[in-house]
Design goal:
There is one protein chain. Helices cover about 15% and strands about 30% of the residues. The protein is of the alpha/beta class. The strands form three sheets. A five-stranded mixed barrel has the order 3-4-7-9-8.
Length: about 230
């Protein structure tokens, strides 16, 4: 009887832990093969993602374009979905999978390349995102799309309590020059070598592409030094 009770207790505790875990989906890496032609597609959420995507207001499904600027500020209490590059990862509670992400927001107009995810190099600055999960499941300098409510904004930096996060590792996304006025953190933009006059968009990026635009992952994520 005691053994059965212990088994039941373990199952209940493990169920609570999995329930607390933020839903995380990662885009699989596939070999990119040039076909000689490119096409554009509307954004397609995954089956799990669709549940939170449908909670967005129409004004929050596209978050900036070359035609219209988008602001991540003064949105406390609103359910939003923002794209961002993972610059920093930290544990909010030592020894627990309670994470805070520092994200460089990227504009997205709702249209992407059909064969690879595409967002703008431009954005409206940094924001924070809190979630429950394993830091190893979110690579430094990956692209993510987070869904959740903006719970506060301090020092011009919004904070989202994340319900769902979709992750694009390197070789599954690219960046385009198109975008409204850029308000990105200068700390990140100075790393981007093509931003100083070269072409940013590449439909078939390789590792060197990301290193030149985003930097070296060894310097970011859990290793990010908190200096301006």
């Amino acid at each position: 009887m005691r053994f059965s009770f212990l088994v039941l207790l373990i199952l209940l505790l493990s169920g609570i832990k999995s329930f607390a875990q933020t839903s995380i989906e990662t885009q699989p890496v596939k070999e990119l093969k040039p076909t000689g032609s490119l096409s554009s597609c509307g954004y397609t959420p995954t089956v799990k993602e669709k549940l939170v995507y449908e909670k967005l207001d129409a004004t929050e499904q596209a978050t900036g374009s070359f035609m219209a600027a988008y602001s991540i500020h003064k949105k406390e209490g609103k359910f939003v979905s923002w794209f961002g590059i993972v610059r920093g990862i930290s544990q909010t509670r030592l020894g627990e999978n309670k994470l805070a992400l520092l994200l460089e927001q990227k504009y997205f107009d709702g249209i992407t390349d059909c064969h690879i995810m595409m967002v703008s190099q431009s954005g409206d600055g940094d924001f924070l995102a809190n979630l429950d999960g394993d830091a190893q499941s979110i690579p430094a300098l990956s692209l993510v799309r987070v869904y959740g409510k903006v719970v506060e904004e301090k020092n011009n930096t919004p904070l989202i309590a994340v319900d769902y996060i979709r992750v694009w590792p390197w070789l599954t996304f690219t960046l385009t020059d198109l975008g409204a006025g850029d308000h990105s953190n200068p700390r990140w933009t100075k790393i981007c070598k093509p931003c100083k006059g070269g072409r940013i968009y590449n439909p078939y990026p390789n590792q060197d592409y990301y290193l030149k635009i985003l930097g070296n992952p060894k310097d970011f994520g859990l290793n990010l030094v908190n200096t301006r």
